[in-house]
Structures are given as C-alpha cells and as structure tokens.
C-alpha cells in the first residue's frame, strides 16, 4: 500500500489486544475441558488406549491450514495448534515417548515436532531399545530414524521391524545441518579440514567454492575431526553443532551442506492403527522368491491400481540364502478399497507380506 | 469425583472443539493484525526502534497468569502467549538475536525461551562477539550467559560490560543437566569414571550413593572424558548430552547433578531501556576507593531505602592497582523513586557508577 494508513492510538490498540488475549485464554482452556471430556467419553466407550489419535490430530492441523486466512503464516498457525493439542492431551495423561537419546538430538527434535512439547521424552541407548520400550508398554510411542536424505536408509530400524509386532502410526521429517568449526580467525587462515568422508561428500560444492586450495583429510568420525581441529588453530572440522559445543570450537560457517533439503525422516511406532485421513501412506515389507522377475511382478500390483510408490529399499533377510526382503512405502491407507485390492493381489504373488502400518503423511 | 460424570457423545464434543479451534484461529490472526497496527502507530509516532518491548511482553504474560483459571497450567498458558507474541512480532519484522553458538546449545534455548521461536538466531563464536553484533546493529538483541548456579559467574560477560554502551533489557534462566554415559551394559560394569573436576563436584552425592567403589578420575574437560569413555566399555563419563551425541555414547543416567536447580542465568542485551513493570531488577557496576569500609558504605545506600540486593560480584578492574569493581543486582526499577534516591546516594559514595539496565524479572 502506498497510502499512509490511518492508525488508532497505541493505547486503543493495546486495549483491544488485551481483550483478545483474555478471550483466547478462555477458549484454550475451554478446549482443554473438551479434551478432558473426550477422554471420559472414550473411557465410557471402553477405548482407554486410544486417547492419542494421530489421524485426528493430522485432520485438525490440515483443517487449520485450510481455514487460515492470515496474516499468520500457515506453519505458524499449525504449530500453535500442535502445541495446544499437546497441552490438552497432557492434562489427561502425558504421553511417554521413547527416542534414541541423548536429549538435545535430532531424534528429540522429531519427538517434539510430532507430539508438541507437552510430552515426557524417554531417551534410550539404541534403536532396538526404542522398540523394546513400546513393546513392553514402558512408553506409549517411540520415534526412530528411518532414512537420511544424504546417508540413506537406517538399517537398524528396518531390521528391527521384521521382528516387531509394532505399527507405524506417523512420520516426521527434521532438517539437519553441517557446520565448519575451528579456531581460525577467518577462512583464509585454514590450512586443513577434517571430517568423516560422508560429511565431506555432503559439503563438496561448498568446499570447492570457498576453500578450493585447502587440504582435506577424511577421519573416522566427525567427533575425531572436531578433536583434531581443537588442537590446531589452522585446522577446521566439518561436523554437527554438538561437536562444536563439546570442543568449544567457534562455528565459522553454518549449514554448509550442498543439499538444502538435507533431512532425516523419522517414524512413530506404537501399538494402535491410525484411521484414514484422506492423505495417508502405508508401509509394508515383503519377500519374493528368487525366480526372475519376481520383484517386477510384485510391484505390478501397485501399478495396476494406480497406486504411487514413495520408497523402496531392499535388505537381506536373515532367514535364508539369497533371500531379500523389500520395504516399500505406498500412497494411501490400507482401508482404501484400491489399496486393499492391490495388497490382496500382492499377497498372492509374494512369499511373505507384513503390513507395518497406515498413517497420515507428515503435516508440519 | 467419585460419581461417573455424564458425558456427551464423542462426535458432539469434537464438533464443539472444531468450532473453538476456528474461533481461536480467527482471534490469533486478529491479534496479529493488531500487532501490525501497533507497529504502524509506533512508526507514526517516530518510534521505529522500539517495536519489541520487553516490559510490555512481561506484563502481558503476568496478566495471563493472573487471569488463568485452568485447566491448563499457568506455565503452559504463558508459553502459549509467548509464542503468539513472538509470531505476531515476526510478521512485522523478525527479531535478529545474537547468541554464543553453536545452535542447539543452552544459549539458544535461552533465546527461544525469552523471545519465543519466531526469531532469527545468529550464532557467534565468543561472548564478546555477541556484544559486537548488537553494538554494530547487526542484531537487535544479544543473549549472553552471566551466571551458573554451580560454576558461578561468567567473567567474560561482566568484563565486556565495562566497555560497552549496551543495556540489559531482560533475563532468562535455563536448567542444565549432567549425565552419566558409557558403553557399560549396567552401572555394575563400570570400573572408572572420567569427568572435569567441576562436573564431578556437581555429582558427588549421586556418585557416593550409586557408585561408591568406582575409581573417579578428573580430566581436562568433559569432552576428553567422553572420548576416554568411548575407548573402554568399563569406563563412563559425566558430561552434557552433546558429548554423548558426539561420541555416540549411550546415556546411562540423566540429570545426576546433586542440585536439582542447576541453572544458567542469561541476560538479554540491547540498545533500549525497558519501562517499569512493577516487578523489575536493576543491574549496576561501581568501584570504590581502597579506604576501609568503602564497600560497606556503598551498600548502605540500598539498606537505607529498604532495597533488596539479589547478587553481588567483585571483579578486578583493569584500570588501576588494587582497584575492584562490584557488579550488583538490586530489586526494583531505576525509575522507582526509592531506587532513584538510593542510586543518587550511592553515586556520592563511589568513584564510578554505571547503570547496566532495569528490566522485568524473568517471567517464565
């Protein structure tokens, strides 16, 4: 707008803001009362276990996105309601969520992004322990990493799924960053860069552009790289921020990874199935025999019904020579008629088929 | 309640929740419009620089606490409005806040706790750089650690203040934890514990109770402790979670510090003064001569007017032999008549007096 808008006096605007705040406060508390009532209604219906419903939460957030006319951006409004639902749920029964610790990691970020901050997080020492915690009812849900956009699939998680009765009931993506750290006063003082080979690969373009003449040395881990960099003021390391904190290394450049969308995908595991929301994914694992074209024939089931495949990953099975299992994510919910038909056809063409779960696509 | 409450059907409650959500969404957006109007009114009044007002934010949060009747707990409701104010402010002009990096540290937690998550955080390499960033207008505000409840005062911050024209405009406290980490399958397998002397001291009671027979070795840093622990499955380290992440050490026990209230206090530095809110602190630094009783006489100024002293810290001045400067936090705002009188009296009894700022006491 080029015209100068007429404005009310500051005091008048603030009086309106105070009135709005009081009304928002009343409404969020009224919403919390309703949530308590929902919990009671569920208990009356004999549904104690299902007080957290990922499908319902996904639909609430998508509705907020549809209704939002601004000026607050959609992600801001959605985060707001994510926190509100989290707080309402915690009133009734705080969710216990296991994750691959320690606290402060990307895994914990994923927990908060999916469940909001009003949950109790239980750090455990290994991916398998996340499964254990949920299988043994020590936690309601678990969050495990399943895929990094640069490093690929996290095999521990897939292997553990083969032995678990747990279901996937959600997914969440978290951005991860690489950083250049060291005691050099400027980039021009750096003579050597240490990092793990994988991290070096993730930052190759940045290094070529900014430090083309500098010696690059691959070491066993980013932790070792940070340690070496801490000993020499002409050395630098590429590593995550935790390493900089541990070695008190100044961060010289942040987010130097070449792929701007360097993300880690996490899945939420639990004991309950998620109802269809209209925008769902289904994860499954199957194995075929060794006859030629077996995988092709299996995948035909999805093509025939026009079902999109999001991911496919093959892993050696531990149960027989030359046998592979395939992990696949497809579009749609197992309760969708087309998906159900495709899965029926697939089942006829494979040795083993296990549905890992249908769940809402990541919303935030 | 012992009687079974009568409950509405689930669908009916959800219909009400959906209606409440739509109304909350409308109100938070209306609030954002009002915030935009406030910014315009301030520009019309020639007040561009003061779009963020720590005093106003503190008063909004305290009012929420006063008005809140639950069922949402006060801290939950206040965090909600903290985020809402942060999001509203970001619409107009996202705040740039410098902090002692890297990202993911307690310092960044302090930034988000004070400003909400809708700010741009700028990690810098040293405490002095936080001051530089604000002094040179690269950032609107900075957040620096000033005191750890176990380790004491952070001297870098106090020393830098002596040379800076910046003002303190807020404070924020963050809980910090110590953790036991290592590859041992259980505590009974641990033969040796490494940590920095200070961290060992923070966990002495816990160690006496749980691992009284284990050899304890002080090393130069918690990073080194974690590295040593990573090499020996019968060793463990006491360190922050970042070290566990860097060395992929399972966290065996979390929060083993003896003092449950192990906190780090941060202050917010900027160029503007904060108006009185009724619950404020004032920070100041002064120096006395070397005559006996000089400090006592200086402090009499506060006693005489019944003003509480929260902290006092002495530091050697760099300007003369045997000269000390004293950093003091007192209750009240510099604009309060009693505080103003006490400061006037103090000024007459000291060689140098510098007011660092009056600001609202930490709210969350």
Automatic annotation (TrEMBL), chains A, B:
UniProt site (Essential for prephenate dehydratase activity): 264
BP GO terms, sorted: chorismate metabolic process; L-phenylalanine biosynthetic process
Annotated metabolic or biological route of this protein: Amino-acid biosynthesis; L-phenylalanine biosynthesis; phenylpyruvate from prephenate: step 1/1; Metabolic intermediate biosynthesis; prephenate biosynthesis; prephenate from chorismate: step 1/1
Domain Chorismate mutase: 4-96
Alphabetical list of Pfam families matching this protein: CM_2, PDT
InterPro entries linked: ACT-like_dom_sf, ACT_dom, Chor_mutase/pphenate_deHydtase, Chorismate_II_sf, CM_dom_sf, CM_II_prokaryot, G/b/e-P-prot_chorismate_mutase, Preph_deHydtase
Cited PROSITE patterns: ACT (PS51671), CHORISMATE_MUT_2 (PS51168), PREPHENATE_DEHYDR_1 (PS00857), PREPHENATE_DEHYDR_3 (PS51171)
Coiled-coil zones: none
An example molecular function term from Gene Ontology annotations: prephenate dehydratase activity
Cited SUPFAM superfamilies: ACT-like (SSF55021), Chorismate mutase II (SSF48600), Periplasmic binding protein-like II (SSF53850)
Keywords carried by this UniProt record: Amino-acid biosynthesis, Aromatic amino acid biosynthesis, Cytoplasm, Isomerase, Lyase, Multifunctional enzyme, Phenylalanine biosynthesis
Known EC number: 4.2.1.51, 5.4.99.5
Compartments (UniProt record): Cytoplasm
Gene Ontology, cellular component aspect: cytoplasm
Matching CDD domains: ACT_CM-PDT, PBP2_PDT_1
Boundaries of every ACT domain copy: 283-360
Prephenate dehydratase domain segment(s): 96-271
Catalysed conversion reaction: prephenate + H(+) = 3-phenylpyruvate + CO2 + H2O; chorismate = prephenate
Function: Catalyzes the Claisen rearrangement of chorismate to prephenate and the decarboxylation/dehydration of prephenate to phenylpyruvate.
Name of the protein in question: Bifunctional chorismate mutase/prephenate dehydratase
Native organism: Methylomicrobium album BG8
